[in-house]
Amino acid sequence: MKRAVDFLVLGAGIAGLRAALTLAKSGTVMVVAKEAGQESNTHYAQGGIAVAMGGDEDVALHLEDTLMAGDGLVFSPAAVALVEDGPLRVDELMEWGARFDREDGELMRTREGAHSLPRILHAFGDATGAEIGRALRAEALRHERIEMVEWRMARSLMVRDGRVVGADLLDHDGGTHRVLARATLLATGGAGQIYSETTNPAVATGDGIALALEAGAEVADMEFYQFHPTALNLPGVPRFLLSEALRGEGAELVNEAGERFMERYHPMLELAPRDVVARAIVRESRSADETNPQTIYLDMRRVRGVNLRERFPGISAFLARHGLSLAEDRIPVSPAAHYFMGGVRTDLHGRTTLSGLYAAGEVAATGVHGANRLASNSLLEGLVFGARAAEAMVADAPLCSGKVDGKDESVGQGFVEANDGASVRIADCVERLRRCMWRSFGLLREGAGMRRGADEVAAIAGELESMRAVETGGRAGNEAVGMARVARAMAASALAREESRGAHFRSDFPTKRVEFARVHTVFTESVGVRFTSFGEE
Description:
This protein is α+β, with helices and mostly antiparallel strands. The protein has helices at about 15-25, 40-45, 55-70, 75-95, 130-140, 205-215, 245-250, 275-285, 310, 315-320, 380-395, 420-440, 445-470, 475-495; strands at about 1-10, 30, 50, 100-105, 105, 110, 120, 145-150, 150-160, 165-170, 175-185, 220, 225-230, 250-255, 295-300, 330-340, 345, 355-360, 365, 410, 520-525, 530. Strands 1, 2, 8, 9, 10, 11, 18 and 20 form an 8-stranded mixed sheet that branches. β4 (about 100-105) and β5 (about 105) form a beta hairpin. It is globular and about 65 Å long.
């Protein structure tokens, strides 16, 4: 099947939906979701959305906190855009029906790690992402120019004369669909499934980054993956996110002896930046015995004045299914892969290094988060840069021919068919890749281990490419090849940055180096890694 629209949006999370609402004012829009429309990282975001709605001084403090958390790598113009555009975008959300929690008619605000004051808005306690997604979907579905397509993933981008003009889509039955467009937006989210321990849903396999890499686009800051400090740590249970808002309400981190330990690692204690807290948990767990780590717990038993079941209904319900209570039990926790600071390199308006291709949200790398994302800036990023990317797509559209017919070239050859034998081999490759990435490119890294890991990733990628040559594997095969492609970029970037900064910690280079401050890694498959300062090219 071949279709033509004005604008193609790959991804139906906060960035994609926000972009679609602007794009629909200027043409037809197709929004493509890999599964059901609500299945995205946006839907599972618990804590809230950070926004400074108290005027210029509040905005300035939000900027200062964002820069501090980013550990010397934040691209300041991107952070300025985030905090200055944020209030307008959140006001729009509320006009479209997003219902944030209030007390006596006033918006409730809480505080999270590395924030200097309470500025986090939340909805239904711990269902902020789900509520924002609901409001955006409802608004999009009311618009006759927006077509929502579910259960299709992009297999490859379409390129004509060096310009991206659409994508080939694969549906759940193995059928292929060519969609041509004047401009294409990647809003496919993160890549947490590259790691064996992650809070991300199964759809977060780095598809958009892989598509961009295969088409020749630049990616940036691929060594920086944020590990959330507190994921539920129960054998046989998914690494369910335990929101930073719990610590904002007074939760303490304690070791097996019941001792608080964060004072040994940072003066902000449990509300230190996420990278600091995550490493502190690992170090504390290994402090007595490297080979037999002790369990670390989140403890809210001393919190007073907060009805924890009402404040955190989703978390409380999940814990109850496993016999635990925030008010009565210590909750076992450990870090897990949570958020990608790196991604497809863009300017401040979503433009990638390929004409006709744009990116926004977690899939993109604007430099807004630097080496470590400030808590609850992620939903705001999707809103702000989704809108900015859409504005650029509309502004750039007159530069196109306006035609979407003609001869096109599909970049790459995706898996098409699936069979049982291929499925088993693909699943084995993915599991080996995920374990390797957690072991070699996880929270604590070391040069020799990373080099071994990079070799293993390359070998796995080779196996998958060999299988792709005979067109077996369907969606799982396409995801696997993409994951391996993204992992190779991450490995090369991590090896190149010979220092420790933010979420990237190397025991063989345990300190920050001044020559790497404000210097970003940029990777392409044709060149490899180079270093640059954003805004200077």
